[in-house]
Design brief:
Blueprint: E1 2-3, E2 7-8, H1 20-28, H2 38-59, H3 66-78, H4 87-96, E3 106-108, E4 112-114, E5 124-126, H5 128-139, E6 179-184, H6 191-200, E7 211-213, E8 223-227, H7 232-241, E9 246-249, E10 256-261, H8 280-283, H9 317-322, E11 326-328
Parallel strand pairs: 6-7, 6-10, 8-9
Antiparallel strand pairs: 1-2, 3-11, 4-5, 8-10
Helix pairs in contact: 1-2, 3-4
């Protein structure tokens, strides 16, 4: 993790211990190389860091050991800035969390959309429809939709059901949720910015920091969509917006999709939306066994036949929340 202001935060990837200074920089970093959205990426790192701290505190038995707990809260109060919170208040809170299972702690990122009219800073507004589902549960102190305990099994009269008819695979990731980098591989001035502007018309967010240009000896003719294994669904949405694109796996990309535009580009990008069918040509390029990230809905949920299918106001609340960025504190992926 290399930051434009903090320099090297972590020199390498993989499982490792971090000291206090590194942890602080992980929380602060907002100009990291490779980030397409500085604030959303920083939020994600902060959630992972808090998850790691909770796991560490739990594994060390800190919350159940009075002496350790006292020292932990004291260190916390000396290194943070709070308002209206004293040592005893924090101690009482920590004691109440003594038996808390990290798996029961989930961080949700408030869903946002690009501000309209858009500005050069890439400002965001709250996606009110999606946020309301989450915030209403918090306001009313009720379970987040989709996290309710399973209802106790009861005896019911068997009901004859008809198996769902499986339809063709469709796109499942909306453009505004994709971390995308645009690469100029045509040795043409301003091409990456031109493509980014066209993509923004279709709901994609491409900050200036996510624009790249290859050296003249690296030019290519066609359009390539690079993605890491596991990120096929996002890559298919991008490829659907770039007719004739070729999919290519690059496992160094993480959650980023890389759109490499060659000399044949002719301003021919098109809109792509959740529920759009995936062409056989594109689907054939997804390696066998990797298409699990591509959802195949039942025929009775066909987005084309139901204009409200993708509307958060009419969708199943648990499905809306499932689409919001989240991190569970028990995850093994610390960073």
């Amino acid at each position: 993790i290399i930051d434009g202001q903090l320099a090297t935060v972590l020199a390498s990837g993989g499982v490792q211990d971090v000291d206090g200074a590194q942890a602080l920089n992980l929380a602060r970093a907002r100009k990291v190389e490779g980030d397409s959205g500085s604030d959303s990426a920083r939020i994600h790192r902060q959630q992972l860091l808090l998850s790691a701290i909770l796991q560490k505190v739990k594994s060390a038995g800190t919350l159940l050991d009075p002496a350790r707990l006292n020292a932990f809260v004291k260190a916390f109060t000396q290194n943070t800035s709070t308002s209206g919170v004293d040592f005893q208040t924090l101690l009482n809170l920590a004691e109440s969390l003594g038996d808390l299972d990290p798996a029961k702690v989930t961080f949700y990122t408030l869903p946002t959309v690009i501000s309209q009219p858009a500005d050069e800073r890439g400002s965001m507004d709250i996606d009110q429809d999606r946020a309301d589902v989450l915030l209403n549960a918090i306001r009313t102190d009720t379970p987040i939709p989709g996290t309710e305990p399973e209802a106790a099994a009861t005896e019911t009269t068997p009901v004859e059901t008809t198996p769902a008819v499986v339809a063709d695979p469709v796109l499942t990731v909306a453009p505004d949720l994709i971390d995308i980098t645009v690469v100029n591989a045509a040795d043409r001035d301003g091409l990456a910015g031109e493509v980014a502007a066209a993509l923004s018309e279709f709901g994609y967010t491409v900050p200036e920091a996510s624009l790249e240009r290859l050296d003249p000896d690296q030019t290519q003719d066609g359009i390539t969509v690079e993605y890491a294994t596991g990120n096929e669904a996002a890559a298919l949405t991008v490829a659907a917006s770039a007719p004739g694109a070729t999919l290519a796996v690059n496992d160094e990309l993480g959650d980023t999709v890389r759109l490499i535009v060659g000399t044949s580009y002719d301003n021919n990008l098109v809109a792509a939306a959740v529920g759009d069918p995936i062409s056989a040509e594109l689907l054939a390029q997804v390696p066998d066994g990797s298409a699990g990230s591509v959802i195949t809905p039942s025929a009775d949920t066909d987005a084309e036949s139901d204009p409200d299918a993708a509307d958060p106001a009419t969708a199943d609340p648990s499905e809306v929340v499932a689409g919001i960025a989240q991190v569970n504190a028990a995850t093994g992926d610390c960073l």
